[in-house]
Amino acid sequence: MAKKTSNPIQSLKIPRLIIISCKICAFISTKLATKYTARIFTTPIKHKVPKRELEMDRKSIQHTIHIPKINKDIVVYEFGKSNRKILLVHGWSGRGTQLFKIADELLENGYSTISFDAPAHGKSKGKTTIMSDFIESILEINTKYGPFEIVIGHSLGGMSALNAVKNGLKVNKAVVIGSGDIVQDILDDFILKLELKPKISQLLREYFENKYQTIMDNYSAYKAATEIKIPVLVIHDNDDPEVPIKAGINIYNHLENGSLFLTDKLGHRKILGNQIVIKKIIDFIKSN
């Protein structure tokens, strides 16, 4: 009998207790289920900083700054002292030190980086947050610490970076890694993982649109891509269990000046530390 092998890029699973509690809410009332899933959707998990990120954490100059438009405070990391600055944006349930290997390589190549813990992430206060908080954080950081030559975003950070560029962030180039794309697809996948009926996904979108008085699809990455003229490198893994490859391809297809780099068997997070990926980023940044 063949031995079972573990999947190193297995998707993060939602705890069974949360799934059961969602099902109970849905049985009682779809309205209750919608509010409950909205709360879960906007509540990131705060992970302990892994040992591999501690060096960047120690060597960074850290500040707490206020983001007026969302009335929230975030922690910012200054890494390196070069005037050639690159902004790093982590993904959902990530941290400002999560892209440390990329930051290290950028430092070796004469750049400094600014990163941050988004609201309700890492050392920043709060329990809940949404993508627009990421975007406003990026724009305020640009005002305080910019200008930046490049912005690099992972996952939700990639979506946020593209939306920030669309909304006025001035950079020469952008890199998005494992970026999500269509908001409704993200909601559909979330509801599927909670084992709820697809109808809840539509209700969830309507709930957010009513609460924040916005159209959720306006935040889809492909829509931002259509308005971006600068060179953008899209990096995505064919085996990403969190964000399907179609997201990266669709973003690339809507860019006027895009490049697409696909990898295999790196998943959603391992890709951030891969030396081939990092070299691709450095080469893209240095290219004319």
UniProtKB/TrEMBL annotation:
InterPro entries: AB_hydrolase_1, AB_hydrolase_fold. The keyword Coiled coil does not apply. GO terms for molecular function: hydrolase activity. It holds the Pfam family Abhydrolase_1. Transmembrane segments: none annotated. SUPFAM superfamilies: alpha/beta-Hydrolases. Coiled coil: none annotated. Keywords: Hydrolase. It comes from the Bacteria. This is Alpha/beta hydrolase.
